[in-house]
Amino acid sequence: MLLAAVLVLLVLGGAGPASAHAALRGTDPADGSVLRTAPRQLTLTFTESVGLLDDSVRVIGPDGRRLRVGAAEHGGDSDTARVALPRKLDEGTYTVAWRVVSEDSHPVSGAFTFSVGKPSPTPAVVDAGPTEDPTTAALHKMARYLAYLSVCVLIGTAVFVVVCRPGDTAPLRRPALIAWWTLTAATVALFFLRGPYESGEGLGAALSVDALTRTLQGRPGWALLARLGLLMLVAAGWLVRRRLKYVPVLGGVTAVALAATWAASDHASAGIQVPVAMTSAVLHLLATAVWLGGLAAMALTLRGRALTPETVTRFSRLAFASVAVLVVTGVYQSWRGLGSWNALTETTYGRLLTFKLVAVVLLLGAAAVSRSWTRSLARAQAPVVRVPEPVGGPPLPEPSEPPAPPAPDHRALRRSVLAEVAVGVVVLVLTTVLTATVPGRAVAEAGAGAETSRPVGGTVAVTVPFDVGTPGGSGKVEITLDPGRVGDNSLQAVVFAADGGLATVPELKVSFTNTAQDIGPLDAGLTDKGGYWGNSFVNLPLAGTWTMKVTVRVSEIDQVTVERTIEIT
Fold first, then answer.
1. In DSSP terms, which residues pair with 390 in a beta bridge?
2. How far is Cα 298 from Cα 301, in angstroms, rounded to an integer?
3. At a CB cut-off of 8 Å and minimum separation 6, what does 118 contact?
4. Lower Cβ count inside 10 Å, N or C end of the chain?
5. Strand, helix or coil for residue 295
6. Under a CB-based contact definition with an 8 Å cutoff, are residues 156 and 291 in contact?
7. Average pLDDT over all residues of the chain
8. Which DSSP letter does residue 38 get?
9. Which segments in the chain show pLDDT lower than 70?
């Protein structure tokens, strides 16, 4: 109850607007603007420092051809990207596709438009560039899952052996060795996949000199190299463990350093309160490893019934302390990532966090069952203490001994521990997905900086965010109604995914209703033009306020309808 109250105070009394994951704060020229003269350069401003790629900014002209522009550079500050444009630009609409790397190491991308002279009657169908190669993305996610799982097993097993002191450690040597090899292989894979993951390219770019050089110049690359070095130190310490006097101390320092390599390349490394967030992230990962890795070690040892009551009791206390650390750090990290209560239901990050909290509650329920079996085991095998008889007097009455409790079933304890491990794996998977999801605070900041409806030289431009509540079912629709006045209008709608890349949906409907004059709904009759949806003859017969209803269908059963108000002159 106390922690819940603290969470309420932290969320409602939120801190500043900074966040992890870069969001596009503004552009010059502005998105959707119509300029009388051609600009000499483009400037993109983000909410935090960003890393630039070789192909960070691409400009596509009204004819659909890519313009030759200068290399993207920081415009004096690390939160900007600037490119020089050709001296002479033709009249029409230009599309700017961008892709940068956030300070927290995650790539983000998007697109915007501006026009010179007047907007093009029909925007060119363009390729916004690679958003994410599916094979590279799948392998990168798999390597991250394996890295989280193996580091938990490695650290948790080591702590279990040192702190809980089981009588027989033979069952734990092979799992620890497998965890070391898995973590090493996953780290190597992440290092080589880093380049194509950032640029959105295929596996062919993993061994390119440019990609490796870019990885070596970034903080995530250095963190991965440091992790490999620490793993080599772990291997060396294992080989000479009997000759080292302070093995537990060195092991503890190494475990903290390993956890820091994750914190240095995830959400904690950017945004608000970075030192506190980094410390919290390290403690959170260590507590997770000690609890879940220790559970796996205990389950393996229980299989041979080699655990003593003292060992089980020590781990029970250790697990309780780990849970306490997890709750405190989890509350802080949830507040830092969400920023508001609305983000729990309105963002993908919030919904994933809700699923994780449900899984943690189930995990705590399984832990309570295990803890009850632990107490039963300790009571059943506790020695009976007898009171000695006094010397020189009649013997004291024999103390009555309570009936011995029933012997606990080792199999029941093992089953409850295995249930904890299974739910713990689910928690780890959700944690891994969360680290790659845009935090709710960043989504709110990006939305606050974007204008949902703006007049542009008579043109009505509207950005409509949507979310059907399923994974991958969120994004936004950018709608342009030109000339935005009574009579025939040209309507173009472009659908973007949550990461800012162009998205394809099976159906998109737009209708207009004038409630004051009881007109409508008038269907815009959009058709898929191969990259965007459009209709050059949308007739709006009266001036005034119209309600535009946008329906986005992302699958056979998932769709959502969003309304926006526009003014027709």
1. none
2. 5
3. 34, 91, 92, 457
4. N
5. helix
6. yes
7. 77
8. -
9. 1-21, 104, 122-132, 241-247, 267-272, 304-307, 337-344, 346, 373-375, 377-411, 428, 432-458
Q: What ranges make up the beta strands (E) of 348-497?
A: 453-456, 459-467, 474-482, 487-497
Name the residue among 428, 415, 156 with its Cα closest to residue 294: 156
With CA atoms as reference, report the closest residue to 335 among 353, 358, 361. Answer: 353
What is the dihedral sign for C-alpha 204, 207, 213, 217? Answer: positive
Structure tokens at 167: 């009588």
- pLDDT, one tens digit per residue, over 53-91 is 877 888 888 887 888 888 888 877 778 888 889 888 888
> What distance in Å separates the CA atoms of residue 366 and residue 356, rounded to the nearest whole number?
15
Q: Per this entry, what is the length of the chain?
A: 569
- Nearest CA to 353 out of 342, 344, 361 is that of 344
Please tell me the distance from the alpha carbon of residue 302 to that of residue 419, in angstroms, as a whole number: 14
Q: In the sheet that 50-60 helps form, which strands lie side by side, from edge to edge?
A: 33-35, 107-116, 92-102, 50-60
As a whole number of Å, the end-to-end CA separation of the chain is: 56
**Residues 6, 331: contact at Cβ < 8 Å?**
yes
| φ and ψ at residue 361, rounded to 5 degrees | -60, -45
Q: Are 57 and 94 in contact (CB under 8 A)?
A: no
